[in-house]
Automatic annotation (TrEMBL):
GO terms for biological process: ergothioneine biosynthetic process. It comes from Streptomyces ferrugineus. Its EC number is 3.5.1.118. Keywords: Glutamine amidotransferase, Hydrolase. This is Gamma-glutamyl-hercynylcysteine sulfoxide hydrolase. One of its GO terms (molecular function) is hydrolase activity, acting on carbon-nitrogen (but not peptide) bonds, in linear amides. It comes from the Bacteria. It catalyses: gamma-L-glutamyl-hercynylcysteine S-oxide + H2O = S-(hercyn-2-yl)-L-cysteine S-oxide + L-glutamate. InterPro entries: EgtC, EgtC-like, EgtC_Actinobacteria, Gamma-glu_amide_hydrolase, GATase_2_dom, Ntn_hydrolases_N. Pathway: Amino-acid biosynthesis; ergothioneine biosynthesis. CDD domains: YafJ (cd01908). Catalyzes the hydrolysis of the gamma-glutamyl amide bond of hercynyl-gamma-L-glutamyl-L-cysteine sulfoxide to produce hercynylcysteine sulfoxide, a step in the biosynthesis pathway of ergothioneine. Residues 2-263 form the Glutamine amidotransferase type-2 domain.
Length: 263
């Protein structure tokens, strides 16, 4: 379980999105307002961001709570970016792999986070192991459910799947193998955001000054925040958000996508 956030838009200090808002990710680490599972996100945190002219993101991750890192707020005050993904963690298995288990996970231009838990981990996903290249399994960054779900997503991305499709297919595959799992996934390339709402809260905001924020919960009381329905795939750019219903593994075809207007 965790709280996470992704942003695309005009250049902004990291702190302007994570620390300064009255209910930002920094505060959500000890006082989330809409978290359905768990109450404190103190088992690690991380932020990944993109620098101008470099498509490969930088990451800053720690095993402890974000409020205990005396350097982070100062770093976030001066580092600026047009795209980021950040998360604060409530571990499914306490102490598992420390900093390596903290989102965002990364590969190439992508940053990834998982808010939720795989039911029956690790045994429930044993049938999915054969679908991954051996090198991917041997190079997992951490021994937890989120790292394994990331490996499933990454294999699809490397196979040529579009980002939203990779998330949707992974969610349905994991949900079929482990019913009752919570699978809110968040992915960015620095140019787009893809996310799923599957078992926990997800919101988005298209900011009047430009930019899109996708987050587990609103970081302020701006009335323009919109909640994403459960069982939904979100695809966002800096100006537009597209919502597509996700079917349960045994459901028939779902309706065509609907485009939400920017506000």
């Amino acid at each position: 379980m965790c709280r996470h956030l992704a942003y695309l838009g005009p250049e902004e200090p990291l702190g302007g999105l994570l620390v300064e808002p009255p209910h930002g990710l920094y505060r959500q680490s000890w006082a989330p307002r809409r978290q359905r599972y768990g109450t404190v996100n103190a088992d690690g945190f991380g932020v990944g961001w993109y620098a101008e002219g470099d498509p490969v993101p930088a990451r800053y991750r720690r095993a402890g709570p974000i409020w205990a890192d005396v350097s982070f707020a100062d770093l976030a005050r001066v580092v600026r970016s047009t795209a980021l993904l950040a998360a604060v963690r409530d571990a499914t298995v306490a102490g598992a792999d420390q900093e390596a288990a903290a989102a965002p996970f990364a590969a190439g231009t992508w940053l990834f986070s998982h808010n939720g838990a795989v039911k029956g981990w690790p045994g429930s996903l044993t049938p999915l192991v054969s679908g991954l290249p051996a090198v991917d399994l041997l190079s997992l960054e951490a021994r937890n459910d989120s790292a394994f779900v990331w490996a499933l997503v990454l294999a699809r991305l490397r196979g040529g799947d579009e980002e939203g499709q990779a998330l949707a297919d992974t969610v349905l595959e994991v949900a079929e193998a482990a019913p009752g799992s919570r699978l809110n996934l968040l992915l960015t390339s620095g140019e787009t955001i893809a996310a799923t709402a599957w078992g926990d809260t997800l919101w988005y905001l298209t900011r009047p000054g430009g930019g899109t924020v996708v987050a587990s919960e609103p970081y302020d009381d701006d009335p323009h925040w919109i909640q994403v329905p459960d069982r939904t795939l979100l695809a966002a750019s800096r100006t537009d958000v597209l919502l597509t219903p996700l079917k349960e593994p045994s459901d028939p075809l779902v309706p065509a996508p609907s485009k939400e207007p920017s506000t």
